[in-house]
Write a structure and sequence with these properties.
Tetracycline Repressor, domain 2; DNA-binding; HTH-type_Tx_Regulator; 69% helix; single chain; DNA binding; mainly alpha; Transcriptional regulator, TetR family
Length: 210
């Protein structure tokens, strides 16, 4: 007898199962029928929730991106910290290695899961840009810094930092990673026209001396 489940519960079951199968088989090799059989549902039931395998992939990625976004949005609500510290905390909230399941993160770097990896990076940039822009605009209003292109600068910064520090794209040792991060912080200071060590001091406090 088929078990009837609530909509959200069934949807979560499909996503959990698909995520596990994507890890084991790789996204490209895993089929919709694999997911259907593993969950134990009818084909029509699957399509009631998702139109395609790619839509399932999008939903899996969004679950993790939502965690990062929620953490960053909570930081925006803190009233007793200045824009400099708020911006640094927002960046630290984006450390996906602390948010995404380690097995999934490792498997994102496999060739067969390149699309999953690409979508995760794309969603992070799309989701985090408006949040960071709010902090930049807050700093402009409080005359902490000046920035001519808040949106474009944050897009450039996010794409560069997420790509260069992604172990699945560039295999850097720990010293090289720290150097790249320090260079990104230096670039951010120039983007916002702040003193050279404005963000670097907070960076060193959180990640250690360069």
């Amino acid at each position: 007898m088929r078990v009837i489940k609530e909509y959200d519960e069934r949807k979560k079951e499909i996503l959990d199962t698909a995520e596990r199968l994507f890890r084991i088989k790789g996204y490209d090799k895993c089929t919709i029928m694999d997911i259907i059989k593993e969950v134990g549902i009818a084909k029509g039931t699957f399509y009631h929730y998702f139109k395609s395998k790619e839509e399932v992939l999008d939903a899996i990625v969004l679950r993790y991106v939502d965690i990062v976004r929620n953490n960053a949005e909570e930081i925006l609500l803190i009233e007793n910290i200045n824009p400099v510290e708020k911006l640094m905390r927002a960046f630290m909230a984006m450390q996906v290695t602390n948010q995404i399941d380690k097995d999934l993160l490792d498997n994102m770097h496999r060739v067969e899961n390149a699309l999953l990896h690409q979508k995760a990076l794309n969603q992070l940039v799309t989701t985090m840009t408006p949040i960071l822009v709010k902090v930049i605009e807050e700093g402009i209003e409080e005359k902490v810094w000046s920035c001519k292109y808040p949106l474009e600068y944050m897009q450039i910064f996010l794409v560069a930092s997420l790509t260069l520090t992604d172990e699945g794209i560039f295999e850097l040792d720990s010293d090289s990673q720290m150097s790249v991060m320090a260079a990104m912080i230096s670039m951010l200071e120039k983007m916002l026209n702040v003193p050279e060590d404005c963000f670097m001091k907070l960076f060193i406090e959180n990640f250690g001396k360069m």
